[in-house]
Amino acid sequence: CDDRKQTWKPVLRGYSLVILKWLVILEGGWLGIRTALGREQIPDIVQQFVVILLAASFFAAVINNYSEWAWNLINGLKQIGLELSSGEFSSDSPFITGLELIKLIFGKMSFTSPVDSLGLLIAALVILVCFSLISAQCVLVKCEAMLSMMAAMVLLGFGGSAFTRDYATNAIRYVVSVAFKLFVLQHVLANSYRFLHEVTSDTAHLPAIFTLIGAALILPLHVTATPDAVSGLISGSHVCRASVCAREAST
After folding, report:
1. Which of 15-24, 27-36, 101-110, 226-235 is modeled with the greatest confidence?
2. Phi/psi class of residue 38: alpha, beta or left (left: φ > 0; alpha: ψ in -120 to 50)?
3. What DSSP state is assigned to residue 156?
4. How confident is the model over 29-39, as a mean pLDDT?
5. Residue 202, C-beta contacts closer than 8 angstroms, at least 6 positions apart
6. Burial (CB count <10 Å: 0-12, 13-18, 19+), residue 221
């Protein structure tokens, strides 16, 4: 994936810079037309020209450093999540963590208590399935982030014109939302792992087993819903859905 990504970056960066260049030219031409028609004052013309140059310089810098800046932000927030979890758990290996919990559960099984051992076996199977789903979710989020961010590099070229700048702004906003999504994912998984580990380390009584099974079943939903909610707050989709629901409720 890294080799393919390095091949994609120059191509996407080239097209994005071409789009940026032509939109800046069109924006300057439109400013010149308004100036020729005499509908703008000289101070306003100078101000708008400076804004065009600053916006073009900013988006050109973002295009040239998009991948590096984006992954620095993502890795920085991920490191914060690791520090909050005291380095006990990493979202890079949830399935291996699930296997560690299963190994701990197997150590609690005994032939002298077949009922409790059967409950522990069911709990181990539930944890295996749930952590497999969590691993798939982590892989999906990271693959989506990588592919979407690479494709969004083209949208940065639309920052050269005020008419299309929202597309480029949304591409930057998407990077921030992905960074916080992975940060919350790391934090949720770390806290959930700590809770499951404490329950698993408890004595093998049926109440603890039922608690373990229930927590394991809730965890995949928690891992999916909570990071998406935080990401939606940044991208605006969560707010939009809330406003739509409010309008539907009022009608």
Report:
1. 15-24
2. left
3. G
4. 80
5. 208
6. exposed
**Inter-axis angle of helices 114-152 and 66-84, to 10 degrees?**
160
Mean pLDDT, the chain, rounded, equals: 79
Residue 161 φ/ψ region, left for φ over 0, alpha for ψ in the -120 to 50 degree band, beta for the rest: beta
* Residue 86, Cβ density class (10 Å: 0-12 exposed, 13-18 middle, ≥19 buried): exposed
Across the range 163-188, mean pLDDT stands at 86
Please tell me the pTM assigned to this model: 0.73
- Give the H or E element holding residue 63: helix 42-64
Sign of the alpha-carbon torsion through 44, 49, 51, 52: positive
Listed in sequence order, the residues at least 6 apart from 197 whose beta carbon sits closer than 8 Å to its beta carbon are: 101, 104
What whole-number distance in Å separates Cα of residue 4 and Cα of residue 186?
A: 26
Residues 9-19: b if buried by 16+ CB within 10 A, e if exposed: eeebbeebbeb
CA 219 to chain centre: 18
Q: Given the structure tokens 């693959």, which residue do they identify?
A: 143
